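Deliverable D2.4 — example input (C-alpha cells):
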C-alpha cells in the first residue's frame, strides 16, 4: 500500500506541479511584500533552498520507491521460496507416511506368516506326539494283539480240505433225503414247490440239517468268528 501511494505521487506531474506552484506562490508573495534589497535576497535564497530541498525530497522519495519495489520483489521471491519449501515439506511428509505404511503392512504380513508357520508347526508337533502315543500304546497291547491275530488263523480242521469236502457232501446227502421224504409223503407238494420256484427247505428243516451236520462234522464257532478285544477296539477308534 505504501509503495503504491509513493509511486502514484512520484509519477503524477499534476501533484508535483501543484507542489512547485504552491512553493512559487509563497515565494512571490514574500517577494512582493519585501521592500528591502537584503530581505529580498534572503527570501530569494530561502526560496532557492526550498526548491533544492524539494528536489532532494523527490530524489529521496524516488529512492524509497525503488527500495520498496525491490523489497516487494524480495518479498515475492521469499514468498515463492516459502511456498516451494512448504510443498517440498508436504511431499516429504507424504513420502514418509507412504514409507511408514509400507513398513507397517510388511511387518503385518510378516507377523501373519510367522503365525501361520507357528500354527503349522504346532499341528505337526501334535500329530507327531499322537503317533508316539499310538506307538507306545501298540507296544503295551502287543500281547493282546498277538493273541487276537492267532485267533484269526484257521484251525487244523478248517485247514483240511478233505474234512470240508466231507462236510459239504454230508449236507448234500441230508438235503437229498429230506426232499425225498417230503416228496414221497407230501401228496405231490414237491411239484408245487418246484413250480413256484421257492425253497423246499424251510427254516425249521434247515436248522435240523445244520444241527446234524455240526454233530457229524463240527466246527469251532469261536475260531470262525473271534471277537476283537476291547483294547484293540479303543486303539482303532483312537487312530480313526
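Example output (designed residues):
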Amino acid at each position: 500500500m505504501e509503495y503504491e501511494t509513493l509511486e502514484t505521487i512520484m509519477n503524477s506531474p499534476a501533484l508535483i506541479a501543484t507542489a512547485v506552484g504552491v512553493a512559487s506562490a509563497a515565494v512571490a508573495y514574500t517577494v512582493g511584500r519585501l521592500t528591502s534589497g537584503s530581505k529580498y535576497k534572503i527570501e530569494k535564497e530561502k526560496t532557492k533552498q526550498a526548491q533544492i530541498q524539494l528536489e532532494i525530497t523527490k530524489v529521496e522519495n524516488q529512492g524509497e520507491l525503488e527500495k520498496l519495489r525491490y523489497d516487494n520483489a524480495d518479498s515475492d521471491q521469499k514468498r515463492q521460496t516459502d511456498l516451494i519449501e512448504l510443498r517440498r515439506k508436504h511431499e516429504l511428509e507424504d513420502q514418509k507416511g507412504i514409507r511408514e505404511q509400507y513398513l507397517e503392512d510388511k511387518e503385518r504380513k510378516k507377523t501373519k506368516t510367522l503365525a501361520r508357520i507357528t500354527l503349522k508347526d504346532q499341528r505337526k508337533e501334535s500329530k507327531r506326539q499322537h503317533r508316539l502315543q499310538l506307538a507306545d500304546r501298540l507296544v503295551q497291547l502287543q500281547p493282546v494283539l498277538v493273541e487276537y491275530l492267532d485267533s484269526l488263523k484257521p484251525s487244523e480242521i478248517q485247514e483240511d480240505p478233505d474234512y470240508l469236502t466231507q462236510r459239504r457232501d454230508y449236507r448234500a446227502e441230508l438235503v437229498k433225503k429230506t426232499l425225498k421224504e417230503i416228496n414221497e409223503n407230501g401228496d405231490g407238494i414237491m411239484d408245487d414247490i418246484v413250480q413256484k420256484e421257492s425253497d423246499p427247505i424251510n427254516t425249521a428243516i434247515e436248522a435240523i440239517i445244520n444241527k446234524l451236520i455240526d454233530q457229524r462234522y463240527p466246527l469251532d464257532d469261536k475260531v470262525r468268528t473271534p471277537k476283537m478285544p476291547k483294547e484293540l477296539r479303543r486303539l482303532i477308534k483312537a487312530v480313526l
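Residues 46 and 52 are 10 Å apart (CA to CA).
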